[in-house]
Amino acid sequence: MPHSMSQEEIQIPADTLLVLTKNQAWHYRIIPKEKLGNQLYLYGEEEPLFSDLKAELEILTGLEIHLETLPSPQITRLLSKYYIRENGTQGMIHIQMDQQADDFLLNLISETKSLKSSDIHIEIYEHKCRVRIRIDGLLVERYVIKREDYPALINKIKIMSNLDISEKRLPQDGRINYKHRTEKFDIRVSILPTLHGEKAVLRLLNNDATDIDLNTLGFSPFDLANYLEGVRRRDGILLISGPTGSGKTTTLYATLKLLNQESRNITTVEDPVEYTLEGVNQVQLKESIGLGFAAALKTFLRQDPNVIMLGEIRDTDTANMAIRMALTGHLVLSTIHTNSAWGTVSRLMDMGIPAFLVANTLNTTVAQRLIRLLCPACKIQKPFQKDQYPRQFIPFYPVEKQYFPGGCEECYYTGYKGRKAVYEVIPIDQELAQEIKNGNLSVQEPLKDRKIKTLAENAFEIFSQGQTSLEEIYPLLLNY
Asked: 10 Å Cβ neighbour count for 101?
């Protein structure tokens, strides 16, 4: 009889997984359990030709094979978890496990792109080097690299991104124009010296902005109407706030796509340029030669723009230039790091912008987060327990049932598939502008009167509809 073991009990280290390639694991439907010397212990399915399989694997690996049986559904689950491949057999990518191979880095990038991952982390520690990729916002360990192969991999990344391979003491930033097979996109590279060596992070940038649409990002109809009202103004500042990786740039580009008409001159200054959009004049910052945000913006004023997009308002100089452009009749779009939409007001004041200038120029402020959506094929419904809410949180309305992540081949057994943006949109009208001029930053009642929904309310609505789990929106409820 096959041995049964719960999925949670089976944890396989990444270095053990390197014993088999992805193709071998799926072809033979086996999972490496442990390697001790020349002994290789595997999980496999019970089948009539068990002894033939054992002999074939011993010839293939050169190791003495020991097979432990598991039920077929559990083997499929483990294969999907540890040897991730694209859904369906078409286009499956085989990664060469030899880190010295010339195409290891190229195939790693291709695999990461095929899994819709945003980042690759290549890290070195005292006894271990590893590769992690970020899928739907969470890092997953994919490969372990030999320490002796690690410096060559870092040097290859530096060469591809035109960085100095002899400089190992200072951080470096670069860019790769990736072209391999039929794929073509840009990669932002960051090299950071750490205690045991250099760490590399590769951010995969989606060059194609044609599929981005404001209507599909996650705005509620009410919030979208308020946002579009701000976008249609001819001047003022529209700011989107949120942490790194919350989708702010995607929202900005969806907005630019809407505004991109022959009658408008649109100019952007970014670091880096994450999307390319035909008809928009895009400027890449180069701090090393003095082309920063402030310097670029001064030139923009002589370029006769209608719409200006700044990648980020980072400092007082940039904030002052954005205010100046808004006052002279331009629509300015940008991002800023704050915890809420209204927090943008106090953040600008902290940068030294007078309250009356903030009130006269800020036309819309938006807060944004990304939440993972449950996989519709395997989510599990359970009765709701009220004690699962944060202690201080009072529900907006009763919820009778909730859904939990399950796990299936469609979602690589994570229980989640895709993400959705959650928004909080505040249009700055005359009354709110007067509150800003008066220095009154506590405006909960006026916002309620305008039926402005907070991030927590919009996230709770998605949870109540069964699209996501309580765990995923829990941090937003804590801040409410």
From this structure: 13
Considering only CA atoms, which of 348, 297, 353, 349 is closest in space to residue 325?
297
Residues linked to residue 120 through DSSP beta bridges, in sequence order: 133, 202
Crossing angle of the two packed helices 221-231 and 248-259, in degrees rounded to 10: 60
Pairing of strands 401-404, 380-383: antiparallel
Apex CA 285: angle with CA 281 and CA 288, to 5°? Answer: 150
33 phi/psi in degrees, rounded to 5: -95, -45
What contacts 162, CB < 8 A, 6 or more positions away? 174, 175
Task: Report the distance separating Cα 20 and Cα 293, nearest Å.
Answer: 49
Cis link prior to 32 (omega < 30° from 0)?
no
Q: What is the mean pLDDT of each run of 10 residues along the chain (480 residues)?
A: 51 79 83 87 75 80 85 82 60 43 79 86 91 87 86 93 92 85 83 95 78 86 94 94 88 92 90 82 79 78 88 88 90 91 92 93 95 92 82 83 85 85 93 88 83 91 92 85
Q: How many CB atoms lie within 10 A of CB 145?
A: 22
Q: What is the pLDDT of residue 472?
A: 92
SS (H, E, C) 128-149: CEEEEEEECCEEEEEEEECCCC
Which residue, among 208, 185, 165, 183, has the nearest Cα to 175 in the 3D structure?
Answer: 185
pLDDT value, residue 212: 81
Neighbours of 90 (CB within 10 A): 6
Inter-helix orientation angle 104-114/150-160, to 10°: 70
Query: Alpha-carbon distance 183 to 173, whole Å?
Result: 23
